[in-house]
Design goal:
- The complex is a heterodimer of chains A (252) and B (168).
- With 252 residues, chain A is of the alpha+beta class.
- In chain A, 23% of the residues lie in helices and 21% in strands.
- Chain A folds into two domains: 40 residues, no CATH class; 195 residues, Alpha-Beta Plaits (2-Layer Sandwich).
- In chain A, the strands form five sheets. In chain A, strands 10-3-11 form a three-stranded mixed beta sheet. A two-stranded antiparallel sheet of chain A has the order 1-2. In chain A, strands 4-5 form a two-stranded antiparallel ribbon.
- Chain A is globular and about 45 Å long.
- Chain B starts with a helix and ends in a 6-residue tail after the last helix.
- In chain B, helix 1 runs antiparallel to helix 2.
- Chain B has two domains: 102 residues, no CATH class; 34 residues.
- The chains are: A alpha+beta (252), B mainly alpha (168).
Chain lengths: 252, 168
């Protein structure tokens, strides 16, 4: 991979020095008594990439979403290395295209559907091991090291956003480890976001010229997404549940 | 350290004696750890042998929970230097006994499950054989119970032929 830090000399850096550097510039050390040291770390929150001052979200304009296009789905699959095994009932699905049909008017719109990255995620509430969690910046993830594959989160999710991996997996992407017996869902391409990038689906939608998905920081009033949300009507799916999802839709 | 010196002495002895027998014997006693490329760990190999799991699990939590991607101890960066190759020079997967992690872990009879989710080769190197299955491969599985039924029939047949009731 080319997107990792290529500086191999840094890799084996002295452990204490590494921890020291990570904790930020401001470190005050006070020796209280022989053998007892108080270390005050400063700026560690600013050093971490998941910033509590941000809330990442998507705005999906269903009017711009073409019914015959699934570029976002295939881009996600390629980026994160998931694919079906030809069994629609058990195949994993981080993102899918759905069609809404208004039987009264006959209007039909399609839109991508994925983890809505709720502010109060039901999947996190029900997880018995703490594997399902929300990052400081609002991205909801599964810690597969502690996931026991019980699938409570799948039942709790009102959006059917999560999948269970039934088959053994190999040749995973190194930035998206995934394996049999764990639950997974859209990560909002957290590996890209942490490096200042945008999710693969957003990039792919942009490349097709539809530009139906906008990614950005909902907390930053100057961001493109926040400005659009101010200007145009949009909805959260299942507003009755009061989950405050990070993914918003317009033109439904 | 004393043991290492002893092994070294044996190795030298074996070579000077003109017979490879002792050197051969050494590889059957201790794991043959594949040579790494790149700069050595400044903390020393002993430190990493002892603490690699703590370092990796510490750093993985920082990466996953806090999004810190400038982390040194990760499986991905291990393979920068520790991608072991077979005799043909091909990078091996966890399927192979020559895989860097397996050389020691097989020796101490510890099965790691990292590679059920993580790839066991550097990015871009195809992991040919699936090594991540919890269940044995379908060929060895007895999904519809046919083999147990066949076995019981066979036992029944044998008992009938011998004319003895199946007490066993």
């Amino acid at each position: 991979m080319t997107d990792m830090n290529p500086d191999t000399s840094q890799k084996g850096a002295d452990i204490s020095r590494r921890d020291f550097l990570r904790s930020g510039a401001a470190v005050a050390t006070t020796t209280l008594a022989p053998g007892v040291t108080l270390i005050a770390f400063g700026g560690s929150a600013a050093e971490a990439k998941a910033d509590a001052g941000k809330r990442w979200g998507l705005l999906i304009d269903a009017n711009k979403c073409a019914s015959d296009c699934s570029a976002c789905v295939s881009a996600c699959s390629t980026e994160n290395g998931w694919k079906g095994n030809g069994n629609a009932e058990t195949d994993v699905q981080w993102i899918r295209k759905i069609t809404l049909n208004n039987t009264e008017t006959g209007r039909e719109v399609t839109m991508p559907m994925m983890c809505q990255h709720c502010e109060d995620p039901p999947c996190v509430d029900v997880c018995p091991t703490g594997a399902s969690f929300k990052r400081e910046d609002g991205i909801v993830l599964v810690d597969k090291h502690t996931c026991i594959g019980c699938r409570y989160c799948m039942m709790a999710c009102p959006f059917k956003a999560r999948s269970f991996v039934h088959e053994p997996v190999n040749n995973q992407k190194s930035h998206a480890p995934r394996g049999q017996g764990t639950v997974e869902s859209c990560t909002l391409c957290v590996h890209r976001v942490d490096k200042g990038g945008v999710p693969a689906c957003v990039e792919a939608c942009e490349a097709t010229g539809h530009g139906a998905i906008i990614f950005g920081d909902l907390k930053d009033p100057q961001s493109d997404i926040a400005k659009r949300l101010v200007e145009y009507q949009s909805v959260a799916l299942r507003p009755d549940l009061d989950l405050n999802p990070g993914v918003r839709y317009s033109g439904l | 350290m004393a043991r290492l010196l002893l092994v070294f002495a044996l190795l030298i002895g074996g070579m000077s004696g003109g017979s490879g027998a002792l050197a051969q014997e050494r590889s059957s006693l201790l794991p043959d750890i594949p040579k790494a490329t790149g700069a050595p760990h400044p903390e020393g190999n002993e430190y990493w042998r002892k603490n690699h799991m703590s370092l990796m699990s510490h750093d993985r939590d920082l990466t996953m929970r806090d999004g810190d991607r400038e982390i040194g101890a990760s499986l991905k960066s291990c393979f920068d230097c520790h991608a072991a190759t077979d005799s043909a020079g091909t990078i091996v997967t966890y399927e192979s006994e020559q895989h860097f992690c397996r050389t020691c872990h097989d020796y101490v009879a510890v099965k790691v499950d990292c590679f059920m989710c993580h790839r066991s080769t550097p990015d871009g190197v195809d992991e040919g054989a699936p090594h991540a299955a919890i269940l044995p491969p379908p060929a060895l599985r007895d999904e519809d119970g046919t083999s147990i039924i066949a076995y019981l029939r066979q036992v029944g047949q044998d008992n009938t032929n011998q004319g003895t009731p199946g007490n066993d």
